[in-house]
Design brief:
Elements: H1 3-22, E1 31-32, H2 38-45, H3 51-60, E2 61-64, E3 68-72, E4 78-81, H4 83-93, H5 99-102, E5 104-105, E6 113-114, E7 120-128, H6 130-133, H7 143-164, E8 169-175, E9 180-189, E10 191-197, H8 200-203, H9 207-210, E11 222-228, E12 231-232, E13 251-256, H10 267-296, H11 300-327, H12 330-349, H13 355-377, H14 384-398, H15 401-409, H16 416-432, H17 438-444, H18 449-459, H19 465-473, H20 485-526, E14 539-544, E15 548-550, E16 553-555, E17 558-560, H21 561-570, H22 581-585, E18 595-600, E19 612-614, E20 620-627, E21 645-648, H23 650-660, H24 664-671
Antiparallel strand pairs: 1-14, 2-3, 2-7, 3-4, 4-11, 5-10, 6-10, 7-9, 8-9, 10-11, 11-12, 13-14, 13-19, 15-16, 17-18, 18-21, 19-20, 20-21
Length: 672
């Protein structure tokens, strides 16, 4: 047997054995920094990092914007993340340029461009506040009573944290469905500037067909910089030193902010997702992509305007398709049932009981399924006119001046895309609501959704500022007397929204209560040998750099530039396998054996995009940007048989900086 094949087989067997012993429930390895798995790391890898290692790695790891991760990679506040995490911000500042498509390099510090509204958050304090959150909670309280008390206690904790540390931003974090509560406090960097971004087609090479696929050839990276008081931030004590990348089989760690997993959910909760939530969301995404593509085909300017929205939706489309595919796979659901029975069996053997939790949850999920249509479609459908009408009714009913201000702040300019989304909302609603649904009847009448939308937006006067002011003053016409079509619909819609909101809140409170009980039972049975579901808060995951069986052969642990240019040639340079001209010109300069991407077994999900991959020395050895298609099932049940995280290799980044973009200043900074 060849040496590489032997290493592959040996490590696979080692990982499979450790996974079975460590986590029969499939809860994965998204460890929190306040409960690091010290005994596990020593037992599995012989690795015993000191507190200084943990602190430096934590402070170097960042939450980037509203949905990604990042890291400090130089002493001067330099930040590394994915291109797909920053491209929306880049689009907002590129003006007449097309930096998203064509790339951007700041040649000097003065050329770095501020990205307004973008922040990165650094976790600096962690405090267990479980006792304070549960204060006053007693047996016999209803789910609603517990929920209200938790809200009250949480407000008190956050208020105290802000008073004691006004320089930090607090966040209450619910772990194990409320079994543990943590107070996380962040230093927020608000001045973030763009330093360098590659071409979209290099970072997104292969486009949607290659998304969630491996082997992969994408250099999905971008550099930004944090500034404090107009100067680059001093991060000399906790940045991640650059390295040449990992070796096959090497132990690596992923630090970042996974957005959310659902591994603690019961089988009945997953069945709700399978039968209700995922079909609805998939339909919404599919229809919006079709609508946006039609608008984009009208002109190059429209395509530029809608590009980032389409790319985001395409990513979501493939993600939801893969996750839903796992839920509809009988073999996968059998794995979940096996894990659930193992949990129940251990609980019964230990005399802990808890069987009624699963029974009550199954009953609750039937109620939740029945709510899916009304809760999702008794809404304004995103149409500003209808949102303004609802705000006016709130003001008329309560006299709340905030509602009046909200009505004024809503921009009611005609937007063809918004109107198409609104028409689609009610088109889909016909499949989710009964034919005689009063809201559906109020919106559509006898018309088709597109005609009903046109009738509403042309017949309503709520976009008229003078008419709006008159309504708010109650001068010539009172809100209650107005026959404006948007207000007529809103009067029907508003009580149903309230009823559905209350029903959904009651269901959520009951689900939270059962989830917390389940988490408590989990601790009693398994102790600290399990990790909580993701919450878009900082986690660390361990794994190894390793290929996997693929299409009857093996997927390599890394890909190289030979493969990228070969793929371009094999598809005749046709989109989405076309390389930018600058890359084709640089072909003879690029080291074709340099690594582009690699795979490893670290535990990741959405939100981990932009996460650094580090080695045992705390050096940066990679940049996570995706998972393979097999890993999408990890949302519900973790596995590492063929499930892999896909990362950009440091060699690929350096080759791009040196040979394509001539970014000498950036290369010097990374080498220090």
């Amino acid at each position: 047997m060849p040496a590489t094949r032997w290493l592959f087989t040996a490590v696979v067997l080692l990982l499979a054995a450790s996974a079975r012993g460590q986590d029969e429930l499939g809860l994965g390895k998204m460890w929190t920094f306040e409960r690091p798995p010290l005994a596990y790391l020593e037992r599995e890898y012989g690795f015993k990092p000191d507190q200084r290692w943990w602190n430096r790695v934590r402070l170097a790891s960042l939450r980037f914007g509203r949905g990604c991760s990042a890291s400090f990679v130089s002493p001067k506040g330099l930040i590394l993340t994915n291109h797909h995490c920053a491209r929306g911000n880049i689009a907002q500042v590129q003006g007449e340029h097309d930096w998203v498509r064509d790339g951007f390099v700041a040649r000097d510090l003065e050329d770095e461009v501020r990205l307004p509204g973008l922040t990165v958050q650094q976790l600096v304090r962690m405090t267990d506040v479980t006792a304070a959150m549960r204060e006053g909670v007693k047996g016999g309280m209803s789910a609603d009573e517990v929920a209200r008390l938790l809200d009250k206690n949480g407000e008190r904790i956050v208020r105290k944290a802000r008073a004691e540390h006004p320089e930090l931003t607090p966040q209450l974090v619910k772990l194990f469905q409320g079994g543990i509560w943590q107070l996380y406090q962040y230093r927020v960097f608000e001045d973030i500037r763009l330093v360098m971004a590659p071409h979209l087609q290099a970072s997104h090479f292969g486009g949607d067909p290659d998304n969630f696929v491996y082997p992969r050839y994408s250099v999905d990276f971008t550099f930004c910089r944090a500034y404090v008081d107009g100067k680059p931030a001093d991060t000399s004590d906790y940045h991640l030193p650059w390295s040449d990348g990992p070796e096959e089989g090497e132990l690596v760690f992923l630090t970042g902010n996974p957005g959310g997993t659902q591994r603690l959910l019961t089988r009945s909760q997953l069945e709700y997702n399978r039968d209700a939530r995922y079909p609805r969301v998939r339909e919404l995404i599919d229809n919006r992509i079709a609508i946006l593509r039609e608008f984009s085909a009208a002109s190059a300017e429209r395509e530029k305007e809608l590009r980032t929205m389409i790319l985001g939706l395409e990513n979501g489309q493939k993600l939801y398709r893969g996750e839903h595919g796992a839920l509809t796979d009988p073999e996968f659901m059998q794995r979940k049932e096996t894990a659930e029975r193992a949990f129940q069996g251990r609980a019964a053997k230990a005399g802990k009981g808890g069987a009624e939790i699963w029974t009550r949850m199954a009953t609750l999920m039937e109620r939740k399924k029945a709510l899916e249509g009304p809760r999702s479609f008794h809404r304004a459908g995103g149409l500003p006119l209808l949102l303004r009408a609802l705000a006016l009714l709130e003001f008329d009913a309560t006299g709340d001046k905030n509602a009046a201000e909200e009505a004024r702040d809503i921009v009611c300019k005609r937007d063809a895309v918004q109107e198409a989304f609104f028409a689609d909302h009610w088109s889909r609603a016909r499949d989710w609501l009964p034919e005689d649904d009063p809201v559906l009847q109020a919106v559509l009448g006898a018309d088709e959704p597109a005609a009903a939308t046109e009738r509403l937006v042309t017949g309503s006067r709520l976009a008229d500022g003078e008419y709006l002011d008159a309504l708010l003053r109650g001068a010539d016409v009172k809100i209650a007397d107005s026959k404006d079509p948007a207000l007529v619909i809103a009067r029907v819609l508003r009580p149903w929204m309230k009823q559905n909101r209350e029903a959904a809140a009651a269901t959520a409170a009951a689900e939270d209560e059962l989830g917390a009980r389940l988490a408590g039972l989990l601790f009693e049975v398994y102790g600290n040998d399990v990790s909580p579901d993701a919450t878009f808060t900082l986690r660390i995951s361990d794994g190894r750099v390793l290929g996997y069986p693929y299409n009857g052969s093996l997927a390599p642990w890394r890909t190289v530039f030979h493969g990228m240019f070969a793929r371009h040639a094999e598809f005749g340079g046709k989109h989405p396998f076309d390389l930018p001209d600058e890359w084709l010109i640089a072909k003879d300069r690029i080291d074709m054996q340099a690594a582009v991407d690699f795979v490893c077994t670290v535990d990741s999900t959405g939100g981990n995009s932009g996460s650094p991959v580090i080695n045992r020395h705390g050096e940066l050895v990679g940049l996570l940007f995706d998972g393979n298609i097999e890993s999408l099932a990890n949302e519900f049940l973790y596995g590492e048989r063929v499930e892999r995280s896909v990362c950009v290799h440091p060699q690929g980044i350096v080759e791009a900086l040196a040979k394509v973009y001539r970014a000498k200043r950036l290369l010097r900074e990374l080498s220090r």
